[in-house]
Amino acid sequence: MKGYMGKVLMVDLTSGNIFEEDIPDKIYENFLSGVGLGAYYLYKNIPPKADPLGPDNILGFVSGLLTGTGSVVTGRWLAVAKSPLTGGWGDSNCGGNLSPAIKQCGYDGIFFKGISEKPVYLHIDKNGPRLYDASDLWGRDAVETEEILIDRHKDKKKCSVASIGEAAEKLSLISGISNDKGRMAGRSGLGAVMGSKKLKAIVLDGDKKIEGNDKEEIKRITKEYGNKVKKASFPNKLKGSMLPTMSRVMDMGSTYSPLNGMMSIPMMKRWGTIFTNTFGLPNGDCPVKNWDGSIKDFGYSKYKYMNPDIIIKREEKKYHCYSCVIGCGGICNVSDVTRGKFKETHKPEYETVNSFGALLLNKDLDSIYYINEIMNRGTMDTISAGNTIAYAIECYENGILTEKDTDGLKLTWGNSEAIVALAKKMIKREGLGDVLADGVKKAVESIGKDSEKYAINAGGQEPGMHDPRLDPILGIHFSADPTPGRHTVGAGQYYTYMRLWEHVSWAPKVKMRTPKENNYVPSSEVAIKSVANSCIKQIVDGSGGCLFAMISGLSNWRLFDYLNAATGWNITPDDYMLIGKRMQTLRQMFNIREGIEPMSFKMHDRIAGNPPLKEGPLEGKIVPIEDMMKNHWEAFGWHKESGKPLEETIAELNITNLLNI
Questions:
Q1: Which residues touch 639 (CB under 8 Å, ≥6 apart)?
Q2: How far, in Å, are 118, 263, 319 from residue 269 at the CA level?
Q3: DSSP 3-state helix, strand, coil percentages of the chain (rounded to 5)?
């Protein structure tokens, strides 16, 4: 009764052999589960320099240490593998209902190596794991596949399915994996890894119990947090149309102060992530016009159509991931705007709305509903896809692409019909869509070097929809994390909300009226904050926790106390942060072993403010990203210039000995 199951399943798709492996307690004590277990297993078992789309790569589905223990907002799982998009460590975080299903099958992770001769899917129930022919499912979208498999394997309870659609089958390097009809593990291109293995789906229907060590303490922490979430609310008269004004008021002044993270919960409960649709434009958080524009280009006359209240009117029911008491998701009726092709879609997340909205100067919200659903069904990452289409539009606007290249599409800013058509082509790998289906870095190789200045990426991965020129610490994580371009790792705003300094002895305190300009200076304090962000996010991802619970504040969502109650370890927050440092360092070691030069992950010059924007809220803002990356590495105990973990750091973290267990 320690929260974890103590073993993993390995499926060799080449031979068809399936076997269990026991994982020693010491590995969980030093890497937790989730991303830590994944990093440990993949580092040990993937041969150096393996082809990401070849038989030696390993694809894993890993659950969190806290999932199923009675804790709340701890139902997330991760896909892990060597990334075909960046060539280094790849992971992708997802909600839905798969995380507990992995553990109910008796495992903390399910791993696949080799390549099947024909399409297959894995089914696990009380009779154990078995591979089945999936030839009849190959070519179907992820939602259809899930519906068929749930019906095919009817039992006392509904099974959980993760599957891929057409983009992943066609090995798009920006494809992902779908769970629960549209919850997406979209980043790192791991759908292509699944497609390369001819693995169409996994179907999980286990009945094993998951238990924590101190059930009563877990129940007490859960009740306390649940009550706080229940009480967190805004007056009903607060409308989505007021969000831009709130943004301007909150952004006034040249300083910031520590905040109670529970302030974010009412917005998440009412709107979910889409509150940022309009909240983030006045302050510059939302990237516009391929990261080269501002609210001056996408003003109120356009962004008013992205008002979250308009989207909420379509919401037929709230959507909660497993064990979530916040409920930021929703199911929207879209039958009228999809000509009856699709009745409903998961409420589009902010990342999708902005990737296909302000980033493309597209004010047509109806087109975004449609794109959201075809991307979910085709399992293509909307963040990467939107950035890639923005790149294509800028190439078209500057004469690098012509109508002959675009199959007659007029790729002008805001042309929603052309945007939808190109999105379809990318999923199907047709025409120009074939060139763009692998993201901007690969597209530059085909289209030409003159287009590189429009190819916004970090280490080959397109960045999430938050601008580091507003939050430079976000830029550090875009550039210095082993999985670059990720907006969910850390940011200055996250740090302020978490109030990590109240728990961790070395985490710098955010003081009242701290000058905003301090975060634009490559100081040791900024570096330590970014290191703290990285370490705590590893703990969250090793636990199955959610980013939104994390930023509600660690005195509210008591992660460290949850972990001690579930495991019985009784260690300090500083001890857990050391585990996070170990997990992050191992992921960086994976990249170094694969030949990655860490400085090559530096985010595109444009989003570092080189050259700076000439108008809008981020006018003149510059992020000294190279110095910030070097300081971050040094604060981690890695080589300041190269980003390679130092031998003394590896020894201090006991990583080599642990890998030999």
A1: 633, 645, 646
A2: 44, 11, 10
A3: 45, 15, 45
pTM above 0.90, yes or no: yes
Q: Give yes or no for a contact between 571 and 504, defined as CB atoms under 8 angstroms apart.
A: no
Asked if residues 206 and 160 have their Cβ atoms less than 8 Å apart, the reply is no
Return d(Cα 479, Cα 643) in angstroms, integer. 11
Dihedral Cα 626, 631, 636, 642, nearest 10 deg: 50
Residues facing residue 370 across a β-bridge: none
pLDDT range class, residue 151, cuts 50, 70, 90: very high
52 touches 190 (CB < 8 A) = no
DSSP string computed for 346-412: EPPPHHHHHHTTGGGT---HHHHHHHHHHHHHHTB-HHHHHHHHHHHHHHHHTTSS-TTTTTT----
Q: Is 73 left (phi over 0), alpha (psi -120 to 50) or beta?
A: left
Q: Measure the CA–CA gap between 184 and 178, rounded to whole angstroms.
A: 5
Tracing tokens 């090793």 back to the chain, one arrives at 542
Helices (H), 485-523: 492-498
32: tokens are: 């937790």
Residues 137 and 203: beta-carbon distance below 8 Å? no
Q: Are 507 and 490 in contact (CB under 8 A)?
A: no
CB of 498 closer than 8 Å to CB of 557: no
To the nearest 10 degrees (0 to 180), the angle between helices 559-567 and 215-231 is 160
Nearest one of 376, 347, 333, 331 to 146, comparing CA atoms: 376
Alpha-carbon distance of 557 to 540, in angstroms, equals 11
Scanning 46-135, the segments in alpha helix (DSSP H) are: 98-104
Asked whether residue 83 carries a pLDDT value surpassing 80, the answer given is yes
Rounded to an integer, what distance in angstroms lies between the CA atom of residue 227 and that of residue 217? Answer: 16
Q: Which residues contact 530 (CB under 8 A, 6 or more apart)?
A: 473, 476, 477, 480, 490, 628, 632, 635
For 264-318, what is each residue's pLDDT tens digit? 999 999 999 999 999 999 999 999 999 999 999 999 999 999 999 999 999 999 9
Over range 437-461, report the average pLDDT: 97
pLDDT digits (tens, 9 = 90+) for 404-421: 999 999 999 999 999 999
H-only helix segments in 186-241: 190-196, 215-231
- Which CA distances in Å does 503 have to 36, 482, 529, 561, 644? 22, 26, 14, 11, 29
Grade residue 157 by pLDDT with cuts at 50, 70 and 90: confident
Q: State the pLDDT confidence band at 340, using cuts at 50, 70 and 90.
A: confident
- Is residue 526 helix, strand or coil? helix
Instruction: Round to whole Å and give the CA distance between 545 and 630.
Output: 29
- Compute the Cα dihedral for 449, 455, 458, 460 and give only its sign: negative
Nearest to 582 by CA among 481, 500, 652: 652
One-letter amino acid for residue 90 of the chain: G
The 3-state DSSP class for residue 185 equals: strand
Cα distance between residue 285 and residue 145, in whole Å: 37
24 falls in which pLDDT band (50, 70, 90)? very high
Which CB contacts under 8 angstroms, 24+ apart, belong to 368-373? Answer: 369/314, 369/332, 369/334, 369/337, 369/338, 369/345, 370/334, 370/337, 370/338, 370/342, 370/420, 371/419, 371/420, 371/423, 372/345, 372/346, 372/348, 373/182, 373/334, 373/338, 373/342, 373/345
279/470 Cα distance (integer angstroms):
14
What domains can be seen in the chain, in order of their start residue?
7-204 (3.60.9.10), 222-454 (1.10.569.10), 472-659 (1.10.599.10)
Q: Are 2 and 25 in contact (CB under 8 A)?
A: yes
H or E segment to which residue 62 belongs: strand 59-62
